[in-house]
Amino acid sequence: MVKTFLDGAYSHESGQPAKAYYDAWADTYDEEQAANGYVTPRRCAAALAAASTERGAPILDLGCGTGLSGVALRAAGFSTIDGWDPSAEMLRRAEVRNIYRVLRQIEPDRPLSAHTGAYAAIVAVGVFSRGLAPPEALDLCLNFLPNGGFFCFSLNDYSMKDRAYEGRVNEMVDCGAARVVSREYGDHIKTRALGATVYVLKKA
């Protein structure tokens, strides 16, 4: 049986190894995900569209990869999208789609930085999982947003098993930093029978 990149996607370590993994995967990423029924980008875009009427306000697509999430956001009517990702090769593929206002390569071992209020919403599809973004990165994303800004992200089945992710979400809500606009469990990667919970939070 031929091993694919998707087979190892949830077992690599965080930081530089993950960056190198996605660099190597970039040229076949779209095709492999399409063949396996990867639907989370579309689910996240639909969830944000249901929550927000601001279609022209700037959105940050965090961990944008090759731009599948940007395509879904554009199809949902959002027109001003920036993409950030650690992988230079993934960003190269995203650039040719011509849907992003700005593309930025970020370093996995350095804190993210942006002006508070620069984005009306942040979307992070498939970002918060073992070997990628840790639970505390949820707080960083919320801090980028103005009061009333939306934070849409997914937690797949593996992330939900690690109680630190959902626990951090609950802490942000319990302390009044954000409220849950929507939370829906559904398909993530259909051929692997993987699911994901899509959240939309609104910053208080």
Summarize the model shown:
With about 200 residues, the protein is of the alpha/beta class.
What would you say this structure looks like, in words?
β6 and β7 (194-203) form a beta hairpin. The chain is α/β, with parallel strands linked by helices and 204 residues long. The chain has 7 helices and 7 strands, in the order ααβαβαββαβααββ. The model has no long low-confidence stretch (mean pLDDT 92). It has a 7-stranded mixed beta sheet with strand order 3-2-1-4-5-7-6, sandwiched between helices.
- How much is the radius of gyration in Å? 16 Å
Percent strand = 15-25%
Residue ranges: pLDDT <50 for 5 or more in a row?
Answer: none
Percent of residues in helices: 25-40%
Outline, from the CA principal axes?
globular
Which strand order does the major sheet show?
3-2-1-4-5-7-6
Number of helices: 7
Counting helices, strands and paired strands, the structural category is: alpha/beta
Distance between the termini: 50 Å
User: Mean pLDDT, rounded to whole units?
Assistant: 92
- In N-to-C order, the SSE pattern is HHEHEHEEHEHHEE
DSSP strand count: 7
Q: Main sheet?
A: 7 strands, mixed
